[in-house]
Design brief:
By secondary structure, the chain is mainly alpha-helical. It has 5 helices and no strands.
Length: 136
């Protein structure tokens, strides 16, 4: 029972570090998105620019503070990029879909926040697999 409790506590602490570093990376993504959307580019193009900026910050912080890299760092980076491309696709699809609705079209900060919230869980479990070779 103690082993299970320790593993759950360790997973919770890892999610908290993931959430903290993710919040920083998402902040970078979010600020760039808000600066670009509707002033310079459409929501989709703004996301295609801002999301990769957040990905770079995210990988750097995850490698340093969240996950223990098992295997070569270049392999983790390439797999992380693949996961991030999937996250970019999911995020862009959500932004495109939500932006078709009147409320979300008028409130892009909320649209981006909703998209980032969904992508958070996608990223946590797949990136944990990439870095550590396990989902849970």
């Amino acid at each position: 029972m103690k082993d299970l409790r320790d593993k759950l506590w360790q997973l919770l602490r890892m999610k908290m570090r993931f959430a903290t570093t993710g919040a920083i990376a998402t902040g970078v993504d979010y600020v760039i998105y808000i600066a670009l959307v509707d002033r310079v580019f459409s929501p989709v193009v703004s996301n295609l620019i801002s999301y990769p900026c957040g990905v770079i910050v995210n990988f750097t912080l995850h490698r340093k503070f969240v996950f223990q890299v098992r295997g070569p760092a270049w392999r983790a980076f390439l797999l992380s990029v693949l996961v991030s491309v999937g996250g970019l696709g999911l995020s862009t699809l959500l932004i495109h879909t939500l932006s078709q609705m009147e409320f979300f079209a008028a409130h892009q900060p909320i649209t981006k926040l909703a998209s980032a919230s969904v992508v958070f869980f996608y990223n946590f479990y797949l990136k944990r697999f990439v870095f550590e070779g396990k989902f849970v």
